[in-house]
Amino acid sequence: MSEKLWGGRFSENTDAAVEAFSSSIDIDKRLYHHDVEGSIAHCRMLAKCEIIGQDEAETLIRGLEQIRVEIESGGFAFLDRLEDIHMHIEHRLAEIVGSTARKLHTGRSRNDQVATDIRLWLRDMTRQLLGGLHHFRKALVDMAESHIGVIMPGYTHLQRAQPILFSHYLMAYYEMFTRDAHRFEDGLKRINILPLGSAALAGTTYPIDRDYVADLLGFIGVSGNSIDAVSDRDFIIEFLGAASICMMHFSRLSEELVLWSSSEFGFVVIPDAFSTGSSIMPQKKNPDVPELVRGKTGRVFGSLVAVLTTMKSLPLAYNRDMQEDKVPLFDAADTLCACVDIYTRMFPALKINAPVMEGAVQTGYMNATDLADYLAAKGMPFREAHGCAGEAVRYAMEKNTELHELDIDELRSFSDLIQEDIFNLLTPRAMIERRCCFGGTSTGNVLEAIKRAHEQLAEDALILIEP
Amino acid sequence: MSEKLWGGRFSENTDAAVEAFSSSIDIDKRLYHHDVEGSIAHCRMLAKCEIIGQDEAETLIRGLEQIRVEIESGGFAFLDRLEDIHMHIEHRLAEIVGSTARKLHTGRSRNDQVATDIRLWLRDMTRQLLGGLHHFRKALVDMAESHIGVIMPGYTHLQRAQPILFSHYLMAYYEMFTRDAHRFEDGLKRINILPLGSAALAGTTYPIDRDYVADLLGFIGVSGNSIDAVSDRDFIIEFLGAASICMMHFSRLSEELVLWSSSEFGFVVIPDAFSTGSSIMPQKKNPDVPELVRGKTGRVFGSLVAVLTTMKSLPLAYNRDMQEDKVPLFDAADTLCACVDIYTRMFPALKINAPVMEGAVQTGYMNATDLADYLAAKGMPFREAHGCAGEAVRYAMEKNTELHELDIDELRSFSDLIQEDIFNLLTPRAMIERRCCFGGTSTGNVLEAIKRAHEQLAEDALILIEP
Amino acid sequence: MSEKLWGGRFSENTDAAVEAFSSSIDIDKRLYHHDVEGSIAHCRMLAKCEIIGQDEAETLIRGLEQIRVEIESGGFAFLDRLEDIHMHIEHRLAEIVGSTARKLHTGRSRNDQVATDIRLWLRDMTRQLLGGLHHFRKALVDMAESHIGVIMPGYTHLQRAQPILFSHYLMAYYEMFTRDAHRFEDGLKRINILPLGSAALAGTTYPIDRDYVADLLGFIGVSGNSIDAVSDRDFIIEFLGAASICMMHFSRLSEELVLWSSSEFGFVVIPDAFSTGSSIMPQKKNPDVPELVRGKTGRVFGSLVAVLTTMKSLPLAYNRDMQEDKVPLFDAADTLCACVDIYTRMFPALKINAPVMEGAVQTGYMNATDLADYLAAKGMPFREAHGCAGEAVRYAMEKNTELHELDIDELRSFSDLIQEDIFNLLTPRAMIERRCCFGGTSTGNVLEAIKRAHEQLAEDALILIEP
Amino acid sequence: MSEKLWGGRFSENTDAAVEAFSSSIDIDKRLYHHDVEGSIAHCRMLAKCEIIGQDEAETLIRGLEQIRVEIESGGFAFLDRLEDIHMHIEHRLAEIVGSTARKLHTGRSRNDQVATDIRLWLRDMTRQLLGGLHHFRKALVDMAESHIGVIMPGYTHLQRAQPILFSHYLMAYYEMFTRDAHRFEDGLKRINILPLGSAALAGTTYPIDRDYVADLLGFIGVSGNSIDAVSDRDFIIEFLGAASICMMHFSRLSEELVLWSSSEFGFVVIPDAFSTGSSIMPQKKNPDVPELVRGKTGRVFGSLVAVLTTMKSLPLAYNRDMQEDKVPLFDAADTLCACVDIYTRMFPALKINAPVMEGAVQTGYMNATDLADYLAAKGMPFREAHGCAGEAVRYAMEKNTELHELDIDELRSFSDLIQEDIFNLLTPRAMIERRCCFGGTSTGNVLEAIKRAHEQLAEDALILIEP
What we know:
- The structure is a homotetramer.
- By secondary structure, the first copy, chain A, is mainly alpha-helical.
- Chain A has 19 helices and six strands.
- The first copy, chain A, has a two-stranded antiparallel sheet. In chain A, strands 3-4 form a two-stranded parallel sheet. A two-stranded antiparallel ribbon of chain A has the order 5-6.
- The longest helix of chain A has about 35 residues, at about 110-145.
- Chain A is elongated and about 100 Å long.
- The relative contact order of chain A is 0.10.
- Chains in contact: A-B, A-C, A-D, B-C, B-D, C-D.
C-alpha cells in the first residue's frame, strides 16, 4: 500500500513535481506542537469513550510525545512526499508504535484536524500578541507619565494647530492600541471553538465526546455544524483585519517618528542602537526601525487581501484552496509581533527634545483659536469672532510677528472687546490648561487618563493569565 | 467676509476647480439627518450649561428642524461652493435665524462634528444591517425546518463526499451569518462612542457637558482622548472588515446557487422573478441575482482596501485625506444591505429539486467511508480499513457499479470481516442518521440545531429594539 | 410580449426589487454615446453586407442619432425596469422607428455589444488621460526650467542627504509620470480591439464584416476568439493597475507638498486659491488639495482590488458578475483625471520659497560625502574615507558646528590628506556641479534632461492627435 | 571601526533585536548572483575609466567570483549582523582581497546597487516566466489541435448556451495567456534600464561610464534621473499587476477544471498523478492541483496590494520601507512560475471525456438561437424571432422534450415560416459550422486560429533567446 493516507483507489503514484507543488510541510511544520497536543486530547477521549483501549491510548500518547521531542531537538526528517505536518507525525508514529498508530485517526479527518490545529495555534498567537501589546501600551503610558510637563504643537493637516501636552499625544496612541487589543479579544471568542469531531464534513459515526476534548484543550465551546466547522476560515480573516488596523496605527506612529527625527522637526532623537547609517553619506543617521515598520504595513494588508481572495466563491465544504491560508496568516502574525516587540524596546530609548517641541509652540499663530474664544466669551458670535481672529493673524503675518507680540492697540483695532487680560490667555500653557473638559489636553485630564489606563492595563492583564 | 467658515486670513478666493474637486456635498448630504440630530443635541447641551440662552437654543433647534424638513421635501439647494453638508446646514441656518446661527458652533469644530455624524450614521446602518441579517438568518432556518427530509450529497473539493441533510447544509450558512451578526455587534461597541467635545483636536475651553450629549444621542460612552477622537476611523475599517467577511459568505452561497441551477447539477430552480434571460439565446434562464451578489464581493473588498490605504501613514490628528472614507463606506454598506435584502426575498422562492438531490446521493461511492468505519468497528485499524474500502471502490469503478450493488462475496473478497449487515449500513439514510454526534448531520441533531437557532434569533432580536 | 429582450420563455415577471437590484442604468448610462456610435457602425455594416436594406439602415441611424440628442438635451427618461443603457436605447428606437428597430440586433448580442462599448469608452478615457498627463508633465518641465538656479536638500529616509537642484527633483517626477503615460499607451494596444461580431460567445451565423466595423470605429484589430472576446476584462484591470501606479506617484508628490508647506519645512506656499482654512482655528491654511489627492489613492487601489476579485474564478464565458466592472472603472478613471487636472492647475501657482530651501542646505553635514570623495580621490580606499568623514561629522556635531566651519587644523586631525582646497569643494554649489555624470544633479545635466523632455513631449503629443 | 559600512559617526552599537528585525539577508541572499554580476561590471568600468587600476580590478573580480562559488557550494556563512547580501559580499571580499575591497564601492551607493540587483533579477525572472508561458501556450495549442473534433456546450452564466468546439474553448485561454506574455514583455522595457551610477540619490562625482556598464550587463538604456532611479519601484508593481492578471486567468481555468472533474459535469479526468485522495473517504479523488492554483491567486493579489501600500506616500528618494518590496515580489514570482510549470505538466495528461461533453450538447435547448436566426433569415425581425423561439422553448420544456424532438406541426404552430429544412439546422455540428465569421467557433476558423498561434509562438520565441 502507498505511503499516502488515501492511496487505496489510486493506480498511479503522485507525480514528483505535484508532490513538491502541493506539499505544505515547509509552512505547516510550525503547527507540530498543536498537532501533537490535539492528537493527545483526541486520543485520551477515544480511550475515555472506550473506542480504543487505555493501553493503546498510552502507547499512542508516548509515541506522540516522543515525536514532539524529536522535532524540537531537530532530529526529525521533513519530506515533500509526506505532504504536511499531520502526515509526517502519523507516519512517524507508525514507525514508533506500529499498527496501533492507525487507530489514532478514528473518528476524525484531516479536515477537522487541520482546523483544530490552526485554531490552537492562532489562540496562542493571539494571546502572545495581546501580551506584547500590553507591554507596549504600558510603555506608552509610562512615557506619558514621565514626560507630563512637555508641551508640543498639535497638528491637523500637518499644520500647527493648537498646543498640546506631549503626554496627551502619547495617550492618543494608547487609545488606538487598546482598541486593537480589545478587537483581538473579540476575535478570540470566535477562534476558541473546537471543530474536532466534525470529521470530513458530516460528523462522525463514532460515539465520541467532543466536550471532553474541548475541556482538555481549553476551548470555550464546540462548533455546532460539521460542514461549517471544516470550511470556516472567518477567524483567520478577522485576525488579519484586526492586524491590519493595528499595523495602520503603527504606520501612523512610524510616520510621525520619521518626521520628528528629521532636521526640520528635530523633536526626537532615535538612539544609535535603533538606527543605521549610509554606506555613502557619513553624516546620515536613518530612522530605519520606524521606516521598516511603516513599510511592513503593506505585507499585512496584502495578507488580508490574500485570504479574502482565496476564500471568495469557494463552495462548501473543504477545498484544497484553503491550504493557502497559512502563508499569509503566519507572515502577518510574525510581522505584527515583531513590530510590537521592536517598538516596545525602542520607545523607552527615544530621546525627546523637549526644548525644540516647546519652541515650535511659540510660533505659527496657534493662539488664534483662543483669541476667537476670548471674543466669543465676551459675547461676539463665534463665527464672527473666528473671522476677527483670522484678520488679526493676517495682519501679524504681514508684519512678520506673532499675535502675542502685537501691542494692545493693534489688537484692539480688530475689536474693542479686547483688553489687557488677553495676554495671559495667549500663552501655550494657559491654552492647554483651559482645555479641561473630559478628553481634552489639560494636565489634570491627562493625569486622569493615565490613571484610568493603569487600571485598564491591570484589568486587561487578567486575560493574559488564562490557562 | 467670505461665505467660507474660515475665510478671515485668506486674501484670495478659492479656485472654482478646487471647490469642485474638494467639495464632498454630493456624497455627504446623506448625513444631513444625523448632522441635524447631533447639532440639536449640542445645542440643548449649550443651553443646559448656560453657554447660550434657552431662547437662543430654541431658535436654533427650530431652524435646524426646518432645514431637515426642507431637505426631506427636496426644497434645498446643494452647491459645491459650500463644500459639505455641515456648511450647507450652517449657512442655511444663518439665513433662517440670523446671527444667532453663529453660536451653534461654540465649543465644537468640524473635526469632531463630522466624526459624530459618521458614527451616528454607521450606528443606524449597523442596526439596519443587523435587522436585515436577522430576517435572512430566519429565512435560512425556516427553510431548513421545512425541508428536513431532503437528502443531498455533501461535497469536499467539489467531489461528492458523504450524504447530508439539505437542512444541515442550510444551517452551515446560518452559522456563518450568525457569526457575521455578532461581529457587527462587537464593532458597534466601538462605533457607539461620542467624539463631540474634542473640538479641533485638543478639546474645548467651554464648560460643556459631554455626558449629557451622549445621553441625548444614545451613545454608550464618550471618547477619552481628543486627539484620537478626531483622527480615529478604525470603526469604519472594522465595519468594512466585517462586511467583507459577510460578502465572502454570500459569494460562497451564490457560487453554490449558480452551480446548483446549472443543467449539470439541477438541484435548484431560481424562479423567473429572480432571473433574467438572454437577448440572443431564447432558452436561457440566468441566475443573475447570485451572480451579481458574487460579483459585488469585489466592491466590498475594494472598499476595505481603499480605507486602509487612505489611513496608512497619516500623522495625527485630522487630515483632509480622511474625507475619502465616505465613498467606500457608503458604497460597501449599501451594497451589503442590498445583497441581504435580495437574498431574503429570493430564498423562500427557491424551488428545491429534492428528487435530483437525492438521486445524486446514489452514485459516487459516498458510502466508502462507512464501509471503512464498519471494518474499523470490527477491529481493523482505521487506516487499514480505509485502504481496504479504497480497493473496493477501485474494483467497483472498474466494474462500473456502486459499492452497495456488489454482492456479498465480492465484498468479502476485500475482508472476511464483512457480513450481510453491511447492506443496511450503506444506504444514504443510514449513513446520515449514524452521524449523530453534536454538530453532525443526523436528523435529530439538525432539528436540535434549528431549535437552538430559533432561541438565538429571539435573543439577538433584543439588540434590534434598543432605542 | 414582455418589454424585456428575453421574455419569451418566462412565465413570471421580474420582481421589482430584483429589477432595482440588477439594474445598471444609473451607472452605464454614461456609455450612451459609445453605444450609439457602436450601433451606427454595426448598422452601416449590416447594410453594406446586405443583411438589412440601405433604407432600413438610414432609418435606424436617424433614430439612433435622435436618441443621442434626446439624452444630451436631458429629455430622456431612465427607468430601472429597462435594466441598462443598451435596452433603453433599443426600446426608445422601437418607439421612434417602429418594428425596424428589431433588426438592429441582428448578428450581435448584448455580450459583445457591452464589451465594445466599454472598450470605446476606455479608449477615449485613456486618450483624455494621456492628454491630461501631457499637460501636467509639461507643467513639471516648465517649472524645472524656470527654477533652474534653486538649490534644496535631497533626502533619503527623510534625512538631509546631499544638495540637489530643485529642478532635478521636479524632473524625477517628470520621469515617473512619463512612465505612467507610456504604460497607458501600452494598455491602449490591448483596449483598442473590436469584440463585436462575437455574439453571445460562439460567433454569429450572419455573414458580417468585422474589419469594416473596426475601420469605422477606429479599432486597430478584431478579436481572434469569440469566447475570449466576451469574457475578457483584462484591459480594465491593466488600466486600473496603471492608474494605481500613477496615483501612487501622486501620493508621493502630495506627501512632499504637505511636508513642504508645514511650518517646519516652509519650502513652498500653496496659494490661498488651492487651500482651505479651519472652522475653529483662524490661523490655519491647509494643503487640502495634496491631502485629498493623497487620500484618493485609496479609492483607486480599492478599484483595482475590486475588479481583480470580481473576475477571480469566473468560468467562461460571460457571467453577470462582470457587470460589476463599471463602478470601479468609472470611479478610478474619474478620480485620476480629476487629480491630474487639479495638479496641472495648482503646480504653476505654487510659491517656491527658494531662500528657505537653500538655507536648509547649509546645515546637516550634507557635504560629508564629498569630504569622503575628496579623501578617496587622494588615494584613501573609499570605505576608509567614509569612516574618516563620519568621525569628522561626529566631532563637528559635538562642537555644534558644521564641517565647513571647522578650521583646517581640525580637519587635518582626521587625515593629513586634507588641504586648503577642501573648502571650495564643500559648498553646496560645488557639490551639485561635480555630480555631472548622466542622470546626476549638475546644472548642465538637468538642462539637458529638460531639453530631452521637451523633445519627448513633442513626440508623445503625436499619439494624442490620432483620429 | 565597526563592521558596518556606515559606523563612523555612531557611538552606540546596533541593538541585536534591531539587527534581527532589520536584517534582510534571509530574503535577499537569493540576489547574490546578480549582486556579483553587477559588481563585476562596475569594477570593469572603474578600471576602464582609470578610477582604479587594472590589477586592482582583476583582484576584485577574482574575489567576487570566489564568493559566488562559495555561496553556490554552500560554504558561506550568513549572519543577521551583516544586514543584507550586499554587505555580506563586501565583507567577505575584504577578507579575501584585503583593503582593495574598499575601492569597489567607489562611485556607487547601496541605493543604486540594490536597484540594479533587483532589476537584473526581475529581468531574468521575467524571461524565465516568458519561457514557461511559452511552453504552456504551446500545450494549449497542441491540445486544441489534437482534439479538433470534440464538441462541448459553451456556457454563459454557467448555463448551457451554444455548442462550441472544445478546441475553440482552449484557444480562448491561449488568447489570455498570450496577452499575459505580451504584458510581461511590455514591462520588460521598463525593467531593463540601468540605475547604477545614480549613487545615493544625486549622482556621483566620479567620471564613470554608465553606458559601458549597461552594455556589459545587457541593459537597453540608462536611467535619466538619479533621484528617480533610486526611488523607483514601479517596475515591481507593474510586474505584480501582470502576474495578478495571469493568476486570475489560472483561477478561471482552474475553476473550470474543478467543475469539469465533478461527478455532475464529468467532462475531464485529472490523472491520479495530479490528484490526491481523502484520509477519511476512500472513494475520493480530488482536483488538488487546480484547487491549489486557484487558491494561490490570493497570494499574488495580496503581493500586489502589499507593494502598492508600501510605496504609497513615500517621499523621495530612497526610504528603508522599500526593503519590503522583496518578500512580495519573490513570493509572487515563485508562485506564478510554479503554477505555469505545474499546468504545463498537467495539461497534456488530462483525459478529456468527449462523449460526455458531446452528450451535454444534446439537451438544454442550445439550438434556440439558431431557430431564432432561421426565422430572422426568413424575414422576421430578430427581436420577434427571439420571442418566438423563446415560446417554443417554453412549450418544449413543459412537454419535457427538446426543440429538435418536436414535430414539424408543433414547430409551425409558432410560425408559418418554419419548414422541414429546420431540422438540419438544429444539430450541434451544423450550429458550430455556421459560426464561421472571424473569431467564431467553426472548425475552419479554429484551425486557422491554431495556425496563427503557431506562427505567433515562433515569433514570440525570439525574445526568449536574447542574451
